């Protein structure tokens, strides 16, 4: 086999092994401050590579003019996580998306790999950075390859778009 087609084949295999975030089932729903947080994810086990990525404070988010979430709702979401900061996100079971809904509006954060021992507070720095830096008529942003508890992930904040 030619090297090139071998590489294409390897690439395709890697793609197939990537979990499809958008199909993740709802695992849990919490009611907080009159709003609702939903956690999505399928039980998966991911081999962890050694972290080679930057601290959240050193990465500028890529902002998106589409898929914007309501700014107040995102800040409320951050507040609810802060109020329950040490709670476990059961990320060992693959929760990778959380949405906060209140008054018919929603704000969601997503991350693209399992993060062992993830706690609610670990989601806050990235969410805060995107809420501050990607807020042109709503919040929609993505942090590429940031370190959360030693795992290199992409984290997003938006109206429930995917975060691959
Ligand atoms: C977010 O997206 C997931 C996957 O498409 C879907 O199952 C869920 O209902 C959505 N949640 C909200 C609050 O839009």
TrEMBL record:
This is Uncharacterized protein. It comes from Hypoxylon rubiginosum.
């Amino acid at each position: 086999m030619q090297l090139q087609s071998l590489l294409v084949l390897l690439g395709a295999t890697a793609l197939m092994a990537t979990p499809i975030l958008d199909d993740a089932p709802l695992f849990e729903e919490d009611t907080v401050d009159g709003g609702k947080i939903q956690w999505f994810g399928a039980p998966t086990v991911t081999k962890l590579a050694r972290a080679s990525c930057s601290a959240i404070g050193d990465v500028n988010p890529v902002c998106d003019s589409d898929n914007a979430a309501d700014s107040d709702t995102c800040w409320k979401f951050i507040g609810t996580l802060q109020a329950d900061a040490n709670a476990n996100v059961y990320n060992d079971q693959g929760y990778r998306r959380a949405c906060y809904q209140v008054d018919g509006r929603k704000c969601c954060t997503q991350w693209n790999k399992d993060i062992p021992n993830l706690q609610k507070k670990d989601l806050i720095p990235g969410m805060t950075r995107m809420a501050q830096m990607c807020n042109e008529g709503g919040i929609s942003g993505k942090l590429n390859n940031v370190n959360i508890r030693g795992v290199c992930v992409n984290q997003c904040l938006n109206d429930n778009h995917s975060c691959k």
